[in-house]
Amino acid sequence: MEPGSLNRLVSIRSPAAGRDSAGQPLTTYTEVYKVWANIRFQTGAEAIKADSPTSVSKVSIRIRRGPIVNAG
């Protein structure tokens, strides 16, 4: 992998349980790490389902194995 191809800073998130102001269960995501990545869009399709546009994309995300920058 060429060093210049890691040109997007992405965050890796983990689900965290919590409660909203009314006391209802709420799933949020907290950022765990930030890493530089290469993102490639491989295929995509758009359609109209139930009178609303829908799109699906197949994406490849590559990161370098090694030290990860802690988000905290």
**What helical percentage do the residues reach?**
under 10%
Overall geometry: flat
In DSSP terms (H or I, runs of 4 or more residues), the helix count works out at 0
Would you list the SSEs in sequence order as H and E?
EEEE
Give the termini separation: 28 Å
Poorly predicted runs are none
The number of distinct β-strands equals 4
Determine the structural class based on helices, strands and strand pairing: mainly beta
Portion of residues in beta strands equals over 45%
Q: Sketch the major β-sheet.
A: 4 strands, antiparallel
Average of pLDDT:
84
Radius of gyration: 17 Å
Label this structure with key terms.
single chain, 72 residues, mainly beta, 4-stranded antiparallel sheet, flat
What are the SSEs and their pairings?
Layout: E1 8-19, E2 25-49, E3 52-63, E4 69-70
Antiparallel strand pairs: 1-2, 2-3, 2-4
Protein described:
The protein is mainly β and 72 residues long. The protein is 0% helix and 71% strand. It has no helices and four strands. Strands 1, 2, 3 and 4 form a four-stranded antiparallel sheet that branches. β2 and β3 form a beta hairpin. The radius of gyration is 17 Å and the shape is flat. The relative contact order is 0.29.
